[in-house]
Amino acid sequence: MSAPSRRLSPVARRVWLLQQVLFWGALTIAGIVVTITAGVGPWFLIPLVVGIAAGIGVPRLRWARWRWDIGDEGIDIQHGTVAIRRTLVPWIRVQHVDTRRGIFEQVFSLSTVVVHTAAGSHTIPLLPAQQADELRTRIAGLARTEDAEPAVEDEQVDVET
C-alpha cells in the first residue's frame, strides 16, 4: 500500500509556528521571571534557544510528514514530527464524523475533520474550511454506504389465540 498523497493546507505551518511561539514565549517569560526574582543565572536562554529552533523546524517537519487519503478500505492517515505514525480507519469502523474550528483555525479560515470510531477519534487537521466540510460529507456518505446491508423484511406470523 502506497503512502497517502494528500497534504494539509500550507497555512498549517503558520498555525503550528504560532503555537510554538506562544508556548516557548511563555516559557521564556517564566525563565525571565525566575532569573529576576531568584537572582540565578540566565535560565531564560534555554527556552529561548529551544523555542527558536522549534519554531523553525517543527512546523516544517510536521507539515512535510502529514499526509492523508481516502481509499477503498478507509481513511489512511500518516503524521508525526520525529516518529511517523500511520493509521488506516476502515469504513466499517466509522461511527460519525464532524468538523471542529478552534481559535487559530477560525483566524486562518481552517477546520479540522474528526472521524469517530468506537476506539476513539482520528483527526485530519487544518484543512481549508470548505474542503473540510466537503470531506466530512464524503466520509459520512462512504461510511454509511459501506455499512449498509440489504433490508430484510420481517415475516408476518399468524398467531392463533
From TrEMBL:
<protein>
    <submittedName>
        <fullName>PH domain-containing protein</fullName>
    </submittedName>
</protein>
<dbReference type="Pfam" id="PF03703">
    <property type="entry name" value="bPH_2"/>
</dbReference>
<keyword id="KW-1133">Transmembrane helix</keyword>
<dbReference type="InterPro" id="IPR005182">
    <property type="entry name" value="YdbS-like_PH"/>
</dbReference>
<feature type="domain" description="YdbS-like PH">
    <location>
        <begin position="63"/>
        <end position="139"/>
    </location>
</feature>
<keyword id="KW-0812">Transmembrane</keyword>
<keyword id="KW-0472">Membrane</keyword>
<feature type="transmembrane region" description="Helical">
    <location>
        <begin position="21"/>
        <end position="38"/>
    </location>
</feature>
